[in-house]
Design goal:
- This protein has about 425 residues and is α/β, with parallel strands linked by helices.
- Helix content is about 40%, strand content about 15%.
- Strand 10 and strand 11 form a beta hairpin.
- Helix 10 (about 250-255) packs parallel to helix 11 and helix 16 (about 380-395) runs antiparallel to helix 17 (about 400-415).
- The relative contact order is 0.17.
Length: about 425
C-alpha cells in the first residue's frame, strides 16, 4: 500500500520450529535463533509464508514478523538505530532507503549484488526507477519488493444508471462526484493518509522538492490549487467525508465495497478487501485523472538491511527469496499486488488479470513525488510538516493561504537547522 498510517505493531512468529534453539552467534550468515523482520501489516501473503517456511527449514531459524503501520515503523526504526538493537531486515514504504543510506543506517548491498546480481536478474530485470530510487552514491541499498500506483475505481452500476462515463479530468471527476452524491452515498471517499494527496500534486506538475533550487512544493500556485481542490471535495462540494487521523488505509475500500461511494482513488492493495467484502460488486478500473497533465504516484515497498544487523548474509538470502519471480507471481495471483520485475509484467497471471493489467499501464506514466528529498537529510521532518499541511486543509478545512504560510514557516526552520 501507499502512504503512512498509525496504529500499534503486532508481532507474529510465522512458525514454531526452532523456538527452543539458542540465539545464534553474531556474524554474517549464521543460522539458529530468531530472524526478526519488520513488515507492513497488510502484506502477510500466503506466498510469503511459503517462502518463510522454507527459509526457516533451511537455516534453522524462527522468522518473527513484527507488523507495523508505516508511521509507527518509522518511529520504531529511528529508536532502533539509536540503540543499536535492529531487526534483520525491514520492509519500508519506498521512500526511506536513500535517507537511511545517507545517515549510514542502511547497509550497502553492493557486495551481494556483485556476487549474485546476474543470478537474480538485477538490475536488468527491475524497472529502472526501482533501481535508481534505492541507490545512493552509486551503490544499491535496497531491493524493491512491490511497485505500484493508484488509479480510479468506479461502481459500474452507479455510473451506468446515472449515464456517466468514468471521469478522465479533475472537472469530470468533480461533476460526476456531485451528481452521484445522494443520501448516504458519497460521490467519492478520499482515502486516509497523506500519500493519497501526492497524485493530485503530480497531476498539477508539482513535486515535493526541487534539488536545483532547494525549494519545496513548486510551482507554488499549482501546489496550492491541487491541495485546495482536494479540500473543496470535502468542505465545499461535500462529495466526500473527511479523511481521518486514525489513518485507516482500508477505509475508502470499505465504503466502496459497501456501495456507499461511487468512486475511489486507490491501488491494487485494496482489491482483496473489496472482493472479500462484496464478491458480487461490479466495478471498473480507469486510468489516473488528468489535471494539467496525466500522472499518478509511483510507489511500493523496498527491503533493506540495517547497517547494524548481526547476520547480513542471512538477511540477503531472505531478500533474494522474497523477491524471486516465482514468489512475486504467486503474490500477485493471491493479492493483485504489482511487482517491479520486467519479466513479471509478461506473466500470464498479470496479462490475463483484469484487475492487474490497468495498473501495468498506469505505471508507464507514474512518477515519484518525493524525488531528491533525502539529499536534504531532513526527509522525515519534511514529511511531518507536509502531513500537517494536508491535515489542516483536508481534515480541519483551513484555506490554502493560511496552511501554506504555516508550512513555509516550518520548512524554513527545518532546512536552516
Amino acid at each position: 500500500m501507499l502512504g503512512v498510517a498509525g496504529g500499534a505493531a503486532a508481532a507474529l512468529p510465522l512458525a514454531a520450529c526452532g523456538s527452543g534453539a539458542p540465539e545464534a552467534e553474531s556474524g554474517g550468515g549464521g543460522g539458529g535463533g530468531t530472524f526478526l523482520a519488520y513488515w507492513n501489516n497488510a502484506h502477510e501473503y500466503e506466498a510469503y509464508k511459503d517462502v518463510v517456511a522454507q527459509f526457516e527449514k533451511d537455516h534453522g531459524v524462527t522468522v518473527e514478523l513484527q507488523k507495523f503501520q508505516w508511521e509507527d515503523l518509522r518511529t520504531k526504526l529511528v529508536s532502533d538505530f539509536q540503540s543499536g538493537n535492529v531487526p534483520d531486515v525491514v520492509e519500508e514504504p519506498g521512500s526511506w532507503v536513500q535517507e537511511f543510506a545517507l545517515s549510514k543506517d542502511a547497509l550497502s548491498l553492493q557486495k551481494y549484488l556483485d556476487k549474485d546480481g546476474a543470478k537474480i536478474g538485477f538490475p536488468d530485470d527491475w524497472l529502472d526507477v526501482a533501481v535508481s530510487d534505492n541507490t545512493h552514491e552509486g551503490q544499491v541499498y535496497g531491493i524493491q519488493m512491490h511497485y505500484t500506483c493508484t488509479l480510479l475505481f468506479y461502481n459500474r452500476k452507479m455510473l451506468d444508471d446515472a449515464g456517466i462515463e468514468p471521469p478522465a479530468t479533475w472537472d469530470d471527476f468533480l461533476s460526476a462526484a456531485r451528481e452521484l452524491t445522494s443520501g448516504d452515498v458519497n460521490g467519492t471517499v478520499l482515502n486516509d493518509g497523506l500519500s493519497y494527496s501526492y497524485p493530485w500534486m503530480l497531476q498539477n506538475g508539482v513535486h515535493e522538492y526541487d534539488a536545483d533550487s532547494g525549494e519545496l512544493l513548486q510551482p507554488r500556485a499549482a501546489a496550492m490549487e491541487a491541495m485546495q481542490f482536494q479540500r473543496d471535495l470535502v468542505h465545499k462540494h461535500k462529495v466526500s467525508p473527511k479523511p481521518t487521523t486514525s489513518l485507516d488505509v482500508t477505509r475508502a475500500a470499505k465504503f466502496f465495497a459497501a456501495e456507499r461511494t461511487a468512486m475511489i482513488l486507490t491501488g491494487p492493495w485494496d482489491i482483496p478487501i473489496i472482493k472479500q467484502s462484496n464478491p458480487d460488486l461490479e466495478y471498473g478500473i480507469a486510468p489516473a485523472l488528468t489535471g494539467k497533465r496525466q500522472s499518478t504516484i509511483a510507489g511500493g515497498t523496498t527491503l533493506f538491511i540495517p547497517a547494524q544487523a548481526k547476520r547480513p548474509d542471512l538477511s540477503w538470502d531472505f531478500i533474494k527469496r522474497i523477491t524471486a519471480l516465482k514468489t512475486e507471481t504467486a503474490a500477485t495471483e493471491e493479492s493483485s499486488m504489482l511487482m517491479p520485475r520486467k519479466s513479471w509484467a509478461k506473466e500470464p497471471a498479470v496479462q490475463e488479470n483484469p484487475d492487474v493489467k490497468p495498473f501495468t499501464e498506469g505505471l508507464t506514466y507514474a512518477e515519484e513525488f518525493r524525488t531528491g528529498v533525502y539529499t536534504t537529510g531532513k526527509a522525515g521532518e519534511l514529511e511531518d510538516i507536509y502531513k500537517t499541511l494536508y491535515e489542516s486543509m483536508l481534515i480541519e478545512g483551513a484555506g490554502a493561504e493560511e496552511a501554506f504560510a504555516a508550512y513555509d514557516d516550518a520548512a524554513k526552520n527545518i532546512l536552516k537547522g
